Amino acid sequence: MLSKKNKEALFNPLSKDNPVLVQILGICSALAVTASLEPAIVMGISVISVLAFSNVIISFLRKTVPTNIRIIVQLVVVAALVIIVQQILIAYNYDVSKKLSVFIGLIITNCILMGRLEAFAMHNSPWPSFLDGIGNGLGYTIILVIVAFFRELLGSGTLFGFHVIPQWCYEHGYMDNGLMILPPMALITLGCIIWVHRSRNKDLQEN
Amino acid sequence: MNKNSNTYQILYAAVMVLLVGTLLAFIYMALKPKQNENIANDTRKQILSALHVAATDDSQVKDIYEKYITQDLLVNSEGNIVDSAKNVAFDVQMKKNVKLPVAERKLPVMKCTMDDGTIKYVLPVYGAGLWGPIWGYIAVNEDGNTIYGANFSHEGETPGLGARIAEQPFQDEFKDKHLFVDGEFKSVAVLKKGQKATNGAEQIDALTGATITSRGVSDMMADCLAPYEAFLKKLQSAGGTQCTADPAAAETTEIESTDNQPE
């Protein structure tokens, strides 16, 4: 069920081969949806499901796909799944779908998806491809959640919309940092995470 | 079979597109009723927000809406009521409505009764922002002149700039502004600080960095509320006492601001 290779497919993307931290993919959406935790988590779940299922579908099709039009086939599969996710969100979580609006559509252009389909699903059987999709999606989600945690906490003083910074802090002059809500601080937060990650994993450092 | 032959590739692409198309059409049809309900609830929330009524719980939005919105009206540009069936104003498609010539338009009005028994009238507005449509709901007091509250929404204005029209601080500025100045309809202008409305309308500050969206709100208010002039005037003459009080109130604020004397 989980051979060594499958374990690698699932767990490597969480840290050693993280799509955001190491491969620096999917940065655009990582900046856009991380102003608070809820949209970040929904975006993460959407990417996990789209990535896992498109990996499986492409893996099933991999022997029939004509090489010349393989990118088109991959795109059609991803686009169809994204539209399904979007329609389901509008039907069952309208507020979040409004918050994510264009970003759900942008999953299609998220480099992580095309990257995994090309690099993994086209050469591996469905089960490892599924794990690879889950792993990479989780790796992406973890980073999104960490960034969103700091941005929401420092920017609005809330977590999941609940106030966590006690009132007496404000009374003693503490203020929410409005800059954290803006996209540049997402980039800086992400930079700090990459810094911490690289200093802990010496083999990732470039000379 | 040769995977790279033209026939195979064309057939492969055709079958794939057909299958995906069917699947998406099916899902769209299956989820449509649920989605429409969500969109209607969202509209109700926007209308309630113009009335300063908070409706956070999705399951109760409809009940709260029906509690406050007591009557739907359609009026014509002469201010006469042409229809007052249930939800008749709520169901008006503003997108189509604003394209009609003013004389042909049926103007939706939602009559609301607040907790303290006062009557408000909610008027929908619809216009263009920078990237797409913007729309909103303006709640007017019984005097047909003073704005009680406003709510604006947009499809895809720039986050942090134009999208701020949907935020509370901007919407709150509309409260207590007057649509009529000295008995003439002027709407409310959205202008950069320091600019003065040429027609003497009351004004609020535009959003920094969102010139076109701000202008869009300003134009939308003027274009969509102007046809209501006759209807609003009828309200004013019905509640005569409040009407005479208004110019006086406007004058006193003017004197205060020029003299700048502390009381």
Q: What spatial form of chain A do the alpha-carbon principal axes imply?
A: globular
Element string of chain B (H = helix, E = strand) = HHEEHEEEEHEEEEHHH
- Rounded to the nearest angstrom, the radius of gyration of chain B is 23 Å
Main beta sheet strand tally, sense and closure of chain A: 2 strands, antiparallel
Report the end-to-end length of chain B measured between terminal Cα atoms.
94 Å
Number of strands of chain A: 2
Descriptive labels:
heterodimer; A: 207 residues; mainly alpha; two-stranded antiparallel ribbon; B: 263 residues; alpha+beta; six-stranded antiparallel sheet; two-stranded antiparallel sheet; 7 helices; 41% helix; 21% strand; globular; disordered C terminus
Task: Walk me through what this model shows.
The complex is a heterodimer of chains A (207) and B (263). Chain A is an all-alpha fold and 207 residues long. Chain A has one domain. Helices cover 67% and strands 2% of the residues of chain A. Chain A has 9 helices and 2 strands. Chain A has helices at residues 4-11, 27-32, 37-61, 70-92, 94-105, 111-121, 126-156, 167-171, 183-200, and strands spanning 158-159, 162-163. Chain A has a two-stranded antiparallel sheet with strand order 1-2. In chain A, helix 3 (37-61) packs antiparallel against helix 4 (70-92), helix 4 packs across helix 6 (111-121) and helix 7 packs across helix 9. The longest helix of chain A has 31 residues, at 126-156. Chain A starts with a helix and ends in a 7-residue tail after the last helix. Chain B is an alpha+beta fold and 263 residues long. Chain B has a domain at 71-254. In chain B, 41% of the residues lie in helices and 21% in strands. Chain B is built from 7 helices and 10 strands. In chain B, the strands form 3 sheets. A 6-stranded antiparallel beta sheet of chain B has the order 2-1-3-4-5-6. Chain B starts with 5 loop residues before the first helix and ends with a helix. Classes of the chains: A mainly alpha (207), B alpha+beta (263). The interface between A and B is medium-sized, with 23 and 22 residues.
